[in-house]
Amino acid sequence: MSEVITRFAPSPTGHLHLGGARTAIFNWLLARHFGGKFCLRIEDTDLLRSKQEYTDSILASMRWLGLDWDGDLIYQTKRTDLYNSYVDKLLATNHAYWCSCTAEEVEAMREKARATGQKPRYDGHCRDLGLGPGEGRCVRLRLPDSGRVSFTDLVKGPIAIDVQELDDFVIRRADGMPTYNMAVVVDDHEMGLTHIIRGDDHISNTPKQILLYQALGLEIPKFGHVPMILGKDKQKLSKRHGAKAVIEYEKDGLLPEALVNYLARLGWSHGDQELFTIDELIKYFDGTSLNPSQACFDDVKLAWCNAHVMRGLPLDALAAKVQPFVENIGLGVQPIERLIPLCQMFRERTSDLLGLAQSFRPLLVAASDLSFIDKDKNKHLTAVGRTHLTKIRDILSSLEPFEPEAINQALNDYVATNNLKFKEVAPPVRTALMGFMGGSHLHEIMAFLGRAETLARFDLAISLCQD
RNA sequence: GUCACCAUCGUCUAUCCGGUUAGGACAGCGGCCUCUCAAGCCGCCAAGACGAGUUCAAAUCUCGUUGGUGACGCCA
What we know:
With 467 residues, the protein is mainly alpha-helical. Among the domains are: 5-75 and 179-230, HUPs (Rossmann fold), CATH 3.40.50.620; 87-172, Glutamyl-tRNA Synthetase, Domain 3 (Glutamyl-tRNA Synthetase, domain 3, Alpha-Beta Complex), CATH 3.90.800.10; 365-467, Arc Repressor Mutant, subunit A (Orthogonal Bundle), CATH 1.10.10. The protein is 48% helix and 10% strand. It contains 18 helices and 12 strands. The protein has helices spanning 18-33, 52-65, 80-92, 103-115, 180-190, 206-216, 246-251, 256-265, 278-284, 299-312, 315-328, 336-346, 353-364, 374-380, 383-397, 404-417, 422-434, 442-464; strands spanning 5-8, 37-42, 74-75, 96-99, 138-141, 148-153, 157-162, 170-172, 195-199, 222-226, 229-230, 295-296. The radius of gyration is 32 Å and the shape is elongated. 36% of the residues are buried. The structure holds one RNA strand of 76 nucleotides.
């Protein structure tokens, strides 16, 4: 088998969104699986809507996701001459012709067709007029009079459409720029693409592109059209339905491995396996087992995926990742060594880095800044609570060493010697330390806080106890 | 309107060329564990859109219906 070459070709008219990210992942995975090449091409021919900042943002998201590309970035706006050389070839072989119709005239044709229940299309007015460059405005492809265009889709199987359904579409605009289908075909051929996985909104472009390949006498690559991702309510994914750009997931503290795992698994499967490492995805993804039906995006499952990745990370790596989030929510620049125990205590209690950082708050602020949840405070900081807190405070003030094991032992001893149950003692202590009934094991919390801070919290809580 | 694509639990999916108590995962519910909350473990709930046909046998093949999505630009 010759080398597999795939590509991702975003247009820089917005940030990288979930759908684009998924097609990028599929193409990247296919190339990596077969040891081929994955190329990146910026389709910036829409001068009005394309912006450099979006190109930058898309590239940043690609890097964040770990989708590295081979070779140089290709910008379509820099290849106008190349496209026009192909247009000239088509003109020279009579596969294309100049058209002088105005936008208004073409629109009138469409209206007319629509009125008779036909598909709106160009009626071939200038087809045989033999217009030259001076007389024409744009260039159109001359389609065959009859026949069917068919191809075997990697995802959907055999697809065929009658050429009667198509019209002589524009391949070169009046301003000299190529249209989308023209540029895509030239680029895909020039870049040597063998496989094209894209959204199935392109399924109707494919016959047009195949006609171009045929008119140009070029080899046709394999196409695979994956269905678009739908929102929760089966509607098209839009901002209204919670569609977010990849960059936003990054800000929310998702891990790229989790997003890649989730997105790859949406519309593709490998038996019953749900969780994959990137290496496993590369190993198993061969372009088959792609699901032809639409899939709804589920951020709850994404969160589950992310939680799983977070739990599997080495603690120091997790601490390094959460560090900027801790700083961003106003908890200061904390050294990694200090974040490691926090990660250990809280990583199973949150599903993203932002949530993890937030869960650190009670342990990173001073006792005086600790905020209490009224419900827990009223319930546990009582006269009975004061008794336990006071006695335990005494024990802790002279405990040596002030370390997890010893602290835990001291608490158990207190419970045993007073003939109590742990669950009678824990609530006031927990509320004193955390401000609410949550968090990790008490001895871990105290060991992290250190003796001084622990005692300060006991003192504060004791003063808050109501009879 | 025309054309194209799609159709299994609420959601993601498995069930390779017809024969399964239709499996797994997320969510939900219940239990165990337990100092809270989680995590973990165990269990429960829950599906072949509808109608015909082919066949000994259909979720699986065929046709139709319905529903969803997409496309129909000198946007990409």
